[in-house]
Description:
Elements: H1 2-27, E1 30-35, H2 40-51, E2 57-58, H3 70-75, H4 85-100, E3 107-111, E4 129-134, H5 148-155, E5 162-168, H6 174-180, E6 186-191, E7 198-206, E8 209-216, E9 221-227, H7 235-247, H8 252-261, E10 270-274, E11 278-283, H9 289-301, E12 307-312, H10 321-330, E13 339-343, H11 345-357, E14 362-365, H12 368-377, E15 384-388, H13 397-401, H14 418-427
Parallel strand pairs: 1-3, 1-4, 2-3, 4-5, 5-6, 6-7, 11-15, 12-13, 12-15, 13-14
Antiparallel strand pairs: 7-8, 8-9, 10-11
Helix pairs in contact: 1-4, 2-7, 2-8, 10-11
Amino acid sequence: MYVMKQLIKSVLTRIFLVQAKSILKNHNPLVVAVVGSVGKTSTKLAIAKILSQKYRVRFQEGNYNVPLTLPFVLTGQQLPNLVNPFGWLRAWLRGQKYVYGNFPYDVVLLELGTDAPGDIIKFKDIVKVDIAVVTAISEEHMEFFSGLESVAEEEFSIAQFSDKLVINSDDCNKEFVKLFVQPQATVVTYGYGAKTNYTVSAKRNNHHSFNADVSLPTAQSSVSATVSVASKHGLKAVAAAVAVADVLGLSKKQIEKGLNAITPNAGRMRLFEGLQSTIIIDDTYNSSPLAAEAALRTLYEMQAPQRIAILGSMNELGAVSRTAHEQIGSLCKPEKLALVVTIGEQANTYLATAAEKQGCNVIRTNSPVKAGKVAAQNLQAGAVILVKGSQNKVFAEEAVKQLLANPSDIDNLVRQSNFWMSKKVAQFTDMQA
């Protein structure tokens, strides 16, 4: 069955990529692509908000980041079920309208993902990228990559088919840039560093927003706005979006209007009202060492009578998994955290033990439902709770459900479709009816 599904997927990919190439060739839109170990989707959506102030932008809200999904970004369609031939036929026919008819977009915004070496370079024969954004180089899918240099080589392979690179200088090692980006390449940088082309500075306005300022090198000035993000590291996506917008000629007024329109994304440092007037930091879409460290820093910055961290296993880290979980556990400080609740084998084994060595109060759980209930039982009024974890065997968004003050907010959590809920019910007995 698996072999048959892979064969079907391969055939469909070939068919729909022919269509995608035709759309791009016939209409020649500007193409902006986002790659990186973490932060791709948030960066993509921030870019979309700002560019939409001047251009007609085509993008997908979700993670349409493999070759088969690229045509569906162009045509604005959802992927049909793999074994639904009529769904694929309808999708192809609708796509043909874009091949021969009008394509009402100036910019196509793509998110390109990788699971193993060689995935990104597959896009080279499909699309020519005008601007590529590299968000970060950190541990990802380490069961397939030999080390960070291997990850960097993969992510920077986009330079081989891009005209300009926009690189996060804070989270992309400069040695990797020298190693994998040709000296003649056009590169601009962004981040908090003083020597970046687009330098972001910020002051927290409240739990929900920052007053942010991003320098503009071309005009020797800056743009300023109150941006609705909960974390300081979330402003790196904002800086990337400003850089792309400035390169593409948006005015300061257009950029600032776009900045004011940015809103939190599901499962990515989004804040909710919790039980007993608490605040929940929902960062449950996924987890990696870089992202988990940044999330903890955000939690520590927030003033509250109590802080709780619900930390799930970080998946797909391969040989570095133990070290990575121990690293995050060592960042758990008893003077900052009243309680650490872990979910999943790796977190329970390594992260929890490292946190206990720091002096933290730790409770291990094997399900997100249990983790949420444990946190609820230990809440103080006005607390701030961080919920962070990867997907399979963790699904920490189900812990968030146990803590919400308003059940209607469940609709704003990640992975609530029938498809995802059935996977969760199969994995956790306390979710079964």
